[in-house]
Structure formats: structure tokens, C-alpha cells
TrEMBL record:
Residues 7-97 form the NB-ARC domain. The keyword Transmembrane helix does not apply. One of its GO terms (molecular function) is ADP binding. Pfam families: NB-ARC (PF00931). Keywords: Leucine-rich repeat, Plant defense. The keyword Cell division does not apply. SUPFAM superfamilies: P-loop containing nucleoside triphosphate hydrolases (SSF52540). GO terms for biological process: defense response. This is Disease resistance protein RGA2-like.
Length: 137
């Protein structure tokens, strides 16, 4: 059975990979609310590539995670939900690509986009699912 690498070993490996390089580290859809772990992680990266102006971007839908992250940085950007027509554009692109959307599917597609409630990932996933179903035939 392969040996499981410890958290400390993973962080050290990441630090080795990033040291001396300019980087953008994206931590997407974070839900962990243990501030001690985040402080330890961010602290371990301090001093790595400081002169290179590197960034760590964290995305979350949990306000408590945002509050914990503010300990390390005071920059916060709250994104708004997309409008229904923007979700429709994403859904349509994923479902049809460059092909023309059949007229009979325009209204149905827009109603599906409204169900996405402004979430681009939902529109993208649903569009991909519809693409796989061959709905334009």
C-alpha cells in the first residue's frame, strides 16, 4: 500500500515548487473553516517568492471562510449572480457550440437557464449534459 504523504510534507513540497517563481495559486470552492490550518498554511508560504508578487486566489460561497481568509488579506471581492440571459448564453454555448439553436428549443433553453439561479457552473454543467443528449437533432 502506498504511503500517504503528511500534510506537512505536501506543504513543504508545494513550497519547494513555488520558491523563486511568480505564481497564482487558485484554491477553488473552499469550505474548510479551521482558521488554525489556514494560518499555518499561509504562514508556511510566507517568504516564498515574495519579490515576485505572487497571489493566492480563494473562491468560496461560505461567508465564514471569507472571514477566516481576511486574516491573511484584507482584499475581498464578492461576485454577484449572473442574469438569466447570461446563464442562457453559457448554457447555449455548452449545449450547441457554434451550431444554431433550433427555434423550438429557444424558450425551453431560457427556462432551463432561469433554473440555474445565476450560477455559471450550473449553466455550464446543464449545457454539457444537453450537448451529450443530441438535443438539436
Amino acid at each position: 500500500m502506498p504511503e500517504v504523504e503528511s500534510r506537512e510534507a505536501k506543504v513543504n513540497r508545494l513550497k519547494e515548487l513555488l520558491d523563486g517563481k511568480k505564481y497564482l495559486l487558485v484554491l477553488d470552492d473552499v469550505w474548510n473553516k479551521e482558521s488554525a490550518l489556514w494560518n499555518e498554511f499561509i504562514g508556511s508560504l510566507r517568504g516564498t517568492s515574495q519579490a515576485m508578487r505572487s497571489w493566492i486566489l480563494v473562491t468560496t460561497r461560505d461567508q465564514q471562510v471569507v472571514d477566516i481568509m481576511k486574516i491573511s488579506s484584507h482584499q475581498e471581492y464578492s461576485l454577484k449572480e449572473l442574469l438569466d440571459h447570461q446563464c442562457w448564453l453559457i448554457l447555449k454555448e455548452n449545449a450547441f457550440g457554434t451550431r444554431q439553436v433550433p427555434n423550438r428549443l429557444q424558450d425551453i433553453g431560457f427556462k432551463i437557464a432561469q433554473k440555474c439561479r445565476g450560477l455559471p457552473l450550473a449553466a455550464s454543467v446543464l449545457g454539457g449534459m444537453l450537448c451529450d443528449k443530441g438535443i438539436d437533432e
